[in-house]
Amino acid sequence: MREKLHKLLPVLFIVVLAASRIPGLLPQNFSVVYAFVFCAGVYFSKRISWWLPFVVLLATDISLNFYYQHKYPDDNVWSAANLANLGFNYVAYAVLIFLGRCFNPKSSFTSLLGGGILGAILFYLITNTASWFFNPEYTKNLAGWILALTKGTSGWPSTLEFFRSTLLSGGLFTALFVAAEKLTSSAESPADKTAGAREPEAETEPQEAEA
Q1: Measured between alpha carbons, how far is 78 from 106 in angstroms, rounded to an integer?
Q2: What b-and-e string marks burial along 118-134, b requiring 16 or more CB atoms within 10 Å of the CB?
């Protein structure tokens, strides 16, 4: 049973991610995304870890844009500025996947949890720096950048609140994903553990020159 559950974990991760993006289900800026893309980098094979998260996120982002455009017809969610900000989200996702690839699936729970939290911090820095760059309300200097990272623009919650939610959700869902993987993989046989797992990168040794 546990072995079957372990094989289904990627599917379960995707289902949790997709369900979590239903509007109003989770508190504002409390997201599974940060943990999902980091853990995809850790546990998925090299090729799948790159294309699968982007396909799932793109599908849900497009669906959300259609939903919000219908709910708020006066707001143009397809504007160049909104799409540029969304594009920087994907830059941040790529950084988190790359970060996950730097970890070993057999790393300790604490190490992987720290990686997930670091990923959430990087997402916050990248996306808020992009907001500072594209939003004309911010002055394009150090003071404007610090304002983007702390207070944000008027009429919206402080970006520090966004940072808190990003940090908490990144840590919480990384812990849940890592715990699920470790609890289900502990019951596998050695052959099962190697099936579909990330393969170590081959090391090439220099050949001796022939005389």
Answers
A1: 42
A2: ebbebbbebbbebbbee
Residue 92 · residue 123 · CB < 8 Å: yes
Distance CA 89, CA 64 (A): 14
pLDDT in tens, the chain (211 residues): 666 666 777 788 888 888 888 888 888 778 899 999 999 999 988 888 889 899 999 999 999 999 888 888 888 888 887 888 888 899 999 999 999 999 998 999 999 999 999 999 999 999 999 989 888 889 999 999 999 999 988 777 889 998 999 999 999 999 999 998 888 876 544 444 444 445 555 544 444 444 3
30 token code pair: 């409390």
Tokens found for residue 132: 């500072």
Map tokens 């996306």 to a residue. 127
pTM, 2 dp? 0.80
